[in-house]
Amino acid sequence: MEPLLSSTAFFSSLLGDDHKLQSGIPQWIRDYRRGDLDFLATARLPSFKDEEWLYTPLSPLWRQPLKLVDRLDGVLPDQFKKYFIEDAVNILIYNGRIAGDITLPDQSFTGVSIEKGDAAFKRLEASREYFSTLTPNDSPLFGRLNRVLFSDPLVISVGRAVTSPGLINIVNIITSPDAAVFPRIMIKVNEGASLNVVQSYLSIPDIAYLDLPVTDIVLDAGARLDYGERHLHSTAGTHIGAVRVWQKKDSTLRSCILSTGAGIFRSNVNVILEGQGASAEINGLHSLQGEAHADSHTYLEHVAPNTTSNQLYKCVLEGESHSVFHGRVFVHREAQQTNSYQLNKNLLLSRECRVDTKPQLEIKADDVKCTHGATIGQMDEDQLFYLQTRAVSRDEAVRMLVRGFMDDVLSRVQNPLVREALTQE
Amino acid sequence: MLTINDLYASVEGTQILKGLSLKINAGEVHAIMGPNGSGKSTLSKILAGNPQYTVDSGSVEYDPGGRSIKLLELDPDIRAKEGLFLAFQYPVEVPGVPTSMFLRSSYNAVCRYHGVEEMDPLDFDVFLHEKMKLLDMDDKFIDRAVNVDFSGGEKKRNEILQMAVLNPRLAVLDETDSGLDVDSMRLVASGVNKLRTKKNAMLVITHYQRLLDYIKPDFVHVLCKGRIIKSGGPELALEVESRGYDWLINPVGGLR
């Protein structure tokens, strides 16, 4: 038997003094928390037999004493200013807390509301059906940890049929060593509306922390969201993030997650295509060096007929880095005429790096088109030689080919604002 | 310009070239013909520096203009910077690398090597379009990734476009006619002929004589079992065309 979570330094540093967690939190959330705390008090650590965590050892995390940051302090270091984008709505989440007031600059955000504090809690209550759900692929542990420990929710909603052409840019920054932060974000795009959102996750170098965000996305009938995440974490940081999406009829999600990994990096993307004609494009690109680690788990659930999902996850590995991909597509019996494509490609640039990949399809319907696959390869010597015969040095040829490998993912980011925000140096 | 002296070379432990010698002067076009497996492509790969091929003995002296270089000691990209060009028999597809960007990097790498100012993107675009006209290529070629989704003919034209951009001193054309219909071959050959000057030289490797109707060689060599067994003028190619290789390989006649 694995040890109890409650016996760890992790647990006692975060949950040892639990009454503190309840101040300013509405009663209905406290009701959930009671159950969550009971669960966590008796939970055992995920073992190596737990497939969800098979390739991502969490043991360093449990040994780590962490602290909750309950107030904002210090001035934002200059190096982060460049991540704020002109003409976008910039929201700073600083060491887990939403900093400052949020202002919507101009009419390109008419019909968009962005709320924090009590207003945000009220919005969450109105969407309890989503809030109360624990998704399967992050294991109940982390979903509950966020629900018990988040304190500063952010809710973005767009009114019916509002097409917002601008960009909402959420910048998560961690500067406090050993901080444990629990951002909780909900994005609700109402019927026929559309929105563009990018989240950057940044930190100062080399500090240890736990970043455990949950981002819930609800796309009503005919809604569209262009969504991006960019992760530039500390090499000693831990990021365990969940993006959970519910899609109604004819809604569209286009998502791209970029990272350079972290000490422990786990990205869970969970999409439920519950309305006919809904489509989701879920892409990812990781570029790992040194001892960086990046684990992407995706779960695409086709519930309704005529739904589409498309996934391309790529990873470039150098040094002793390690990438994990576990992509699961589940097609329900009712979800006829489903189209689902999933591909994971890995490019190994060193002998010491490691890839674990597991594409997985479970199909209960009989009239579907589904493909999946994974490749792990090295630099193609024929391509390198060809470029060299055209006067390109070997180093430059390697750079060109790596860039070509990665551009395949970036070129799929259709929205120019999202692409620019993700790729800006 | 190029002096190959008693060259022995192997691939994967099998010796393919067995004492090949050849001399090419500036302004000359040499053709190498030979049956399958005679070592024609191996020669082109050795000259370009393919790391999968090993030189066992012999030397290759290369003179791009006023100085002699030991060609075999150079990395492939340095050979290219020194004016050697290989048109591949099977051009390699390079997904994700746009043709126009690739051509400009290639051109500017040569500029940097020679201490000449690089060309900026706009000027290069004008320059590239001039070269594309030579080969009747339209814009869609250069917007796509290098050789990806190109037809056989398009790939070969792309090789000659690269040759036009790099303007080599010595061009080695490896079976540039293979897989081409007559119209494409005529187009490719006319592109090559426009690049022919008194200062540069070409080595045309081909299985069939037909390409030599369009690219007229000064000298023809027959390669067999890794050595040149006969050299002559353009008439040798015609003779091979009508009589095959057998009379050269087994000069005694049909007796075994």
Shape of chain A: globular
Instruction: Please bin the fraction of helical residues of chain A.
Output: 10-25%
Tally of separate domains of chain A = 1
Compute the CA-based radius of gyration of chain A: 21 Å
Name the pair of protein chains with the most residues at their interface, and give those residue counts.
Answer: A-B, 23 and 30 residues
Please report which band the strand proportion of chain A falls in: under 5%, 5-15%, 15-25%, 25-35%, 35-45% or over 45%.
35-45%
Query: How many domains comprise the coordinates of chain B?
Result: 1
Distance between the termini of chain B: 41 Å
Word description of this protein:
The complex is a heterodimer of chains A (425) and B (256). Chain A is of the alpha/beta class. Chain A has one domain. Chain A has helices at 9-15, 27-42, 59-62, 117-126, 128-131, 139-149, 381-388, 394-410, 416-423; strands spanning 67-68, 89-94, 97-99, 112-116, 154-158, 168-174, 179-181, 184-189, 194-203, 209-211, 214-219, 224-232, 237-247, 252-259, 264-273, 279-288, 293-302, 308-317, 322-331, 339-348, 354-363, 369-378. In chain A, strands 1, 4, 5, 7, 8, 10, 11, 13, 15, 17, 19 and 21 form a 12-stranded mixed beta sheet that branches. In chain A, a hairpin with a 2-residue loop joins strand 2 (89-94) and strand 3 (97-99). Chain A is globular, with a radius of gyration of 21 Å. Chain B has 256 residues and is an alpha/beta fold. Chain B has one domain (2-42, 50-182, 194-249): 3-Layer(aba) Sandwich (Rossmann fold), CATH 3.40.50.300. Helix content of chain B is 37%, strand content 28%. Chain B has helices at residues 40-48, 76-81, 99-113, 121-134, 140-143, 152-166, 182-194, 210-214, 234-243, 246-249, and strands at residues 2-11, 14-24, 29-33, 53-62, 69-70, 84-87, 94-98, 145-146, 170-174, 201-206, 219-224, 227-232. In chain B, strands 6-9-10-3-11-12 form a 6-stranded mixed beta sheet, sandwiched between helices. A 4-stranded antiparallel beta sheet of chain B has the order 2-1-4-5. In chain B, strands 7-8 form a two-stranded antiparallel ribbon. In chain B, a hairpin with a 2-residue loop joins strand 1 and strand 2. The radius of gyration of chain B is 18 Å and the shape is globular. The chains are: A alpha/beta (425), B alpha/beta (256). Chain A binds chain B through residues 381-383, 385-394, 396-397, 400-401, 403-408, and chain B through 48-52, 75-77, 79-81, 85-86, 88, 91-97, 102, 105-106, 109-110, 113, 145, 162, 166.
